[in-house]
Write a structure and sequence with these properties.
The protein is mainly α. It has a single domain, classed as Arc Repressor Mutant, subunit A. Helices cover 59% and strands 7% of the residues. The protein contains five helices and two strands. The protein has a two-stranded antiparallel ribbon with strand order 1-2. A hairpin with a 3-residue loop joins strand 1 and strand 2. Helix 1 packs across helix 3, helix 1 crosses helix 4 and helix 2 packs across helix 3. It is elongated, with a radius of gyration of 17 Å. 18% of the residues are buried.
């Protein structure tokens, strides 16, 4: 499923864009439950981001109970994190993104059923 790259939205803070990238990776299974996430420094280097910004994104995951931090070892995806993130992303899509898409479809005369037939 092709999604708009989270880093392309200029209106969102960088730490939230990074959080979106990590969330997508967890949902897609690139970081599985129980597996270690890349270190702050490694992820920052990979994304060309400031390590403090990555640390802020990771701390949000920790506050949300989606990762466990084991001092001196690393950060691990918690059991159930993918399902919780998927539900959160669904809700965000349906409440914030879908209404604008639906309005645009109506404006352009695009029928939902016809759109699904084309896919």
């Amino acid at each position: 499923m092709a999604l708009m790259h989270p880093m392309s939205d200029a209106t969102r803070p960088v730490y939230l864009k990074l959080r979106d990238l990590i969330a997508a990776a967890i949902i897609e299974g690139r970081y599985r439950e129980g597996e270690m996430l890349p270190s702050v420094r490694a992820f920052a280097a990979e994304q060309g981001a400031n390590p403090l910004t990555v640390a802020k994104a990771y701390s949000q995951f920790q506050a949300d109970g989606l990762i466990d931090v084991q001092r001196g070892v690393g950060m691990f995806v918690t059991p159930g994190a993918a399902a919780r993130l998927r539900e959160c992303e669904r809700r965000r899509f349906l409440e914030h993104e879908w209404p604008a898409i639906r309005t645009r479809m109506d404006r352009l005369g695009i029928d939902t059923a016809a759109l699904l037939d084309e896919a």
